[in-house]
Write a structure and sequence with these properties.
Largest sheet: none
Radius of gyration: 24 Å
Structural class: mainly alpha
Shape: extended
Strand content: under 5%
Helix content: 55-70%
Number of domains: 2
Distance between the termini: 66 Å
Mean pLDDT: 85
Low-confidence stretches: 200-204
Length: 204
């Protein structure tokens, strides 16, 4: 009887150890996948000319940013927990472009182009496309190379942001005409204005 109890106890211990080992493996696998996802994401941003920077904001400034964030995206900004860095980056970009336009462009002090501040998510994504193409043009990348790089990067061409029917989105492809169109200031400002005014574009 004692031998049987001892055997059952041993089996139970082994089962618990296996569960614990499996749990540790799953956690490690999750961490590895998460780390790889972050590395891939950072690499993609670098390839498109985006700079990763760390900033410190005081509580008062952060509260102002949170109010702007909620006004633009309709979502609350998490003060203490994880944040959607993509959305947060775009909201900060909006604030900078808007301030630059109001203070520098309108007072004839700015040396950069007069870009319309992108308010909605899709307008901000359009501005991201503009920046990615502009970055490559500054590197003297040929149009054919740009088409290849953007296609492989996973960035969707501009018309996807205006499409309301998902089944057609996969048919949109990058080409030289789209690149030229994106680099024309008047055209990109028109696109951003259209996406800013379209209330249905609040969600990506």
């Amino acid at each position: 009887m004692e031998v049987e109890k001892s055997s059952q106890k041993t089996k139970k211990n082994i089962k618990n150890q296996n569960k614990k080992s499996s749990s540790i493996k799953n956690k490690n696998l999750y961490r590895e996948r998460n780390a790889q996802y972050k590395r891939n994401k950072e690499e993609k941003y670098r390839e498109n000319g985006f700079i990763n920077t760390k900033i410190y904001l005081g509580r008062d400034v952060y509260e102002r940013l949170a109010e702007i964030y909620e006004d633009l995206l309709g979502e609350k900004l998490n003060f203490t927990g994880r944040k959607n860095t993509d959305d947060l980056s775009r909201v900060i970009s909006y604030c900078i472009v808007k301030l630059y336009r109001a203070v520098y462009i309108h007072n004839n002090k700015g040396s950069l182009d007069d870009i319309v501040p992108a308010k909605t998510k899709k307008a901000q994504q359009m501005y991201d496309l503009y920046q990615a193409v502009l970055y490559r043009s500054l590197l003297k990348t040929s149009y054919s190379s740009m088409v290849s790089e953007l296609s492989n990067s996973g960035l969707k061409p501009p018309e996807v942001l205006f499409s309301t029917r998902y089944q057609h989105r996969k048919d949109f492809q990058w080409d030289e005409e789209k690149l030229i169109d994106l680099m024309e200031l008047e055209r990109i400002n028109e696109k951003i204005k259209d996406l800013n005014s379209d209330k249905s574009t609040g969600a990506a």
